[in-house]
Amino acid sequence: MRTLLLKAGATLLTFATTAMAAVYVTSHLKNPVAPLRPTVLSAPSGATFSAPGGQLTVGPSVQPSDLKPVTSTYAS
Predict the structure, then answer these.
(1) 45 DSSP 8-state letter
(2) pTM for the whole thing?
(3) What does the CA dihedral 22, 26, 27, 32 come to, rounded to 10 degrees?
(4) Could you give the dihedral angle defined by the CA atoms of residues 63, 64, 67 and 73, in that order, rounded to the nearest 10 degrees?
């Protein structure tokens, strides 16, 4: 009887966790109108932007690139 109670409890806990995860994921959907590239990356060198808590200055070392984007971080 005790084994059956433990199995039932584990099953209920699994279902409850799955349901809570599904509710969390559906309430935090990706914003489809969000820009894929921030405008800071395409700004000219030395540009200054307003940012929460201060200002952001893009120096000469921050430049857009035509390199192939990283699609995998696998390392052997």
Answers:
(1) T
(2) 0.40
(3) 150
(4) 80
> Contact at 8 Å (CB) between 63 and 45?
yes
pLDDT in tens, 11-26: 999 999 999 999 998 8
**What are the structural domain ranges in the chain?**
1-32
Residues in the chain with pLDDT values less than 70: 35-51, 56-58, 60-64, 76
Buried b (16+ CB within 10 A) or exposed e, 2-25: eeeeeeeeeeeeeeeeeeeeeeee
Classify the C-alpha dihedral 44-48-51-55 as positive or negative.
positive
The token pair at 68 is 């192939």
